[in-house]
Amino acid sequence: MTRITAALLVVGAAILVWLILHIGLATLTGQLQKLGLNVLWVLLPSVAMYVLEALGWRATLGRHAPKVPFDRLFLIRMAGEAVNFTTPAAYLGGEPMKAYLLSRYQVPLVEGLASVVTAKTIMTLAEILFILLGIGLGLTLLNRSSEVIGAAFVGLSMLAFGVGLFLAVQRRGLFVGLLRLIERLGLRIEWLKRREDQLRALDEAISRFYTEDKRGFAWAFLFFFSGWAVESGEVYLILYFLGQPIDAFTAFALAALAVFVKGGTAFIPASIGGQEAGTLLLLVAFGYDEGVGIAFAIVRRLREIFWIALGLLALALENRRVYQPHPYGRPPG
């Protein structure tokens, strides 16, 4: 962990502690007690979300999908996401590990990496659509001016353009293109140079998916978007059990805007502190009091911790499994 990352983590933790002390432990405890055992119901939407996201990933595996039992794919994705949340790598640290774990099920490493890249890209596209819809709906519910709506949409549209450009680059050869760019800058990384053929094979696998498996792309997008949309069910249930007025439109807007807030604090490890502060401000903007806002944020953080723990357990179990590796499925040496 770098000094900057460590400093951000300390600042984020300090913000979280200050928020809890500012609201008051008694107030927070009182709000959380309203949930009681109903917190188990709150977990159901996240189960559906993980299932849908695993289905979205499966859609990018093409002919290799039948090689991996769905329950194993589900656990691999859980393990990868747990690594994403617990490593300071901009939520990308677990992606190569997912491809490596797939190789244990006779999926060549190149094909596994291609599915990871395409799945992450499609998931981000679905996320952008979800946030755009949520911003439009949320700002309409809040009766904000068209200028504010326009500014929000411009920001997300620029992000959508960037992801679309990234997708186009993938189709033309992302990894070999990066290697060529590095060489033009006068840098020579022997580790990458020795793997140029593998990088080219990875680019070809990614491009082949986009050009030959449009049905897989469509199904992946549908599953990923549905996974994002299911988050509105979690928002609805948390506020409902906290005894707060909530409707489906407000729940959808809050879920999408909460994703937007979390994305804006991704530079902080696990978004700790920043996510809670942004969520609190978001709920206050929608008319909820600060006690409800911090309780809502803490419940969602506890849900994340629950799934991280399960993901790390899944990783430990996966590492103990006996398997027959594919001859081309091993990580490059």
Describe this structure in words.
The protein is 78% helix and 0% strand. It contains 13 helices and no strands. The longest helix is centred in the middle third of the chain and has 39 residues, at 146-184. It is globular, with a radius of gyration of 21 Å.
The class by helix and strand makeup works out as mainly alpha
Helix segment count?
Answer: 13
From the spread of the alpha carbons, the general shape counts as globular
Mean pLDDT: 81
Secondary structure tally: strands: 0
* Helix content bin: over 70%
SSE run: HHHHHHHHHHHHH
**Amino- and carboxy-terminal Cα gap:** 25 Å
Give the topology, please.
Elements: H1 3-23, H2 25-35, H3 39-59, H4 70-86, H5 95-102, H6 109-141, H7 146-184, H8 190-193, H9 196-212, H10 214-241, H11 248-264, H12 274-285, H13 290-320
Record keyword descriptors for this entry.
333 residues; mainly alpha; 13 helices; globular
Gist?
The protein is 78% helix and 0% strand. It has 333 residues and is an all-alpha fold.
